[in-house]
Amino acid sequence: MMKHYSIRHRLFIGSIILLFLALIPPFIYVGGLLKDDVLTESRLRARNGLEMAAWLMEEQAPFSDTASMNAWAHRFGQRTGIRITYIENGRVVADSEIAYEQLPTLDSHRNRPEVKAALANGEGMEVRYSTTLGKDLIYMARTITVPDSGLDGVLRIALPASVVNERLAELKEGLAAVFLLAMLASAGLAYLVTRSLVRSIEDLAATAHAIGQGDYARKIRDYPGTELRPLVDAINDMAKNTRRQMQMLTDQKGRLEAILDGITDGVMVLDEEGRIHSVNTALTDMFPQVAGMEGATPLEATMQPDLQKAVDAMLRSDTAHSGQPMPDTGRVCNVELSGGRYMEITLVPFADPAGTRKIVLAFHDVSEREQLEKVRRDFVANVSHELKTPLTSIKGYTEMLIESPPAGREQNSMFLQTILKNANHMIKMVNSLLVLARAQHKREQTAMSAVDAAAVIRQTVREMDPAAHEKNISIETQMPETPLMVTGDRDALCEVFRNLLDNAVKYSPNNSAVTVSARITEGRAAFCIKDSGPGIPEASKERIFERFYRLDRDGDTHKNGSAGLGLAICRRIVKSHGGEIWVESPLDSKTGSGAAFFVTLDTASA
Q1: pLDDT tens, 93-104?
Q2: pTM higher than the cut 0.90
Q3: Core vs surface per residue 269-295: b (16+ CB within 10 A) or e
Q4: Were both Cys, which of 80, 417, 588, 601 would link to 579 (CB 3.0–4.6 Å)?
Q5: Buried b / exposed e across 142-161, counting CB within 10 Å, b at 16+?
Q6: What angle do CA 124, 128, 133 make, to 5 degrees?
Q7: Which stretch of DSSP H or E encloses residue 487?
Q8: d(CA 126, CA 84)
Q9: What is the chain's percent helix, strand, coil content, to nearest 5?
Q10: Are 25 and 179 in contact (CB under 8 A)?
């Protein structure tokens, strides 16, 4: 990962590097020059010391033997602080630092650099570590002949090199101090120079950040130097232009959102990759899980594979032929949702102002249309089936009467009774269909009025008394003494209670009772018809209100001659009156028998 440094750090580091590069060569040069000067001075000092030792040795001669020469060398070293050595044919004859008895144990000095140089050139010099004395020494040697002694060899002196090293160390410390002071001065100068510049750059950055956060009224007025003037003008112009563009985008977004939210159909916009870009409120009402799923695919949001296939097909067609957009007038996809809902989805591609290809999906709820179409198909199929059975029976018996008329009067009467029974069943079914059709448009065609529901129920009970008497069934009424006024159509309400009481009597066992009750609850009239019949299974409680639906009891759906339209007529009439109808069964949990049909209607006062 690349590490970023501030301008101040860069200027500081740059000045340090520049100063380092500028001072190092002079430092090396001056250090070397001073070192050469110190060594030259040390060589001169050593030569002077050697000349003085040679003169004194010549003045001191002759020596009686090498012991006296070594004693003189010791005295010379003690007085001058200079080590003196006399070498003859590589053998040390005298040394101011070595006892006379130890001289024979010393190695041959013939191959010492300064000795070899002196033998070759008359004089030699060398700086090295002395293993004998354990320190660095400056050696200076020259050939010498000792008068009247018969000695002809090399005289060598040794000066401590510590003096030279100390002077070189002092010079290095001085140069290092100068270098350090120069570095500190450079850093301070760089800080002073960059402080105002960095502060101005920080102000520029803070203003740019504020503009990026939406503070488009922010402007830069103070800046250091003319070099930053183009940048300041660019930032100010950017803020002004961005403010204008954001205002335009906000207005466009507001208008677009108002339009989309005002559309009753659901709208989904997909980006160039087929993922959700935005949706309107109507779509979130249709698919609550879509809210907050921007960036997801239509399949993830709606769980509809057919819709995803249609989107993928449009994306493939739009990017066919080497990625060139292909014209597409749109596609239509029909999907079925849970709960019997149907959606007709129109997919239309479009390009935004930047040229990016997107897709708009319009969701139109066609559930009512599909349900009506399904009802129409079921109705035609059911009516055809219900009419086919009696018509077949009528046709068969009629052909039999024509082709082979029975000889006996009783058989002939039986055939005619069968034909009449089927004809009456057809008439009853057609009348029920007419009543159902009228009930569908009753609210639009008939003005509602105040009706005494108690009187309607008493009239219906009187009409059902003969049928109940045949099965020894008693119809008990629990009605208020005062009129029970509801808003509705009298004939339609008679049809509702007639159907309900007819079913109660029809399915109740012999020697039982049917109860009809009514009461007022929260401004609504509630009616209940209870019977002691076989009850209604849980799965059929809703379906019994559908057209042509009949419970299969003992495997004979036509045992009671019902067309399966009575309860459908009741529900349609009650719904057209703004009421509710439902059933509760069984009433006896042990035997699973009994059913109670409830009807609620608005009272006339409400």
Answers
A1: 888 888 888 888
A2: no
A3: bbbbebbbbebbebbeebbeebeebee
A4: 601
A5: bbbebeebebebbbbbbbbb
A6: 110
A7: strand 485-488
A8: 15
A9: 55, 20, 25
A10: no
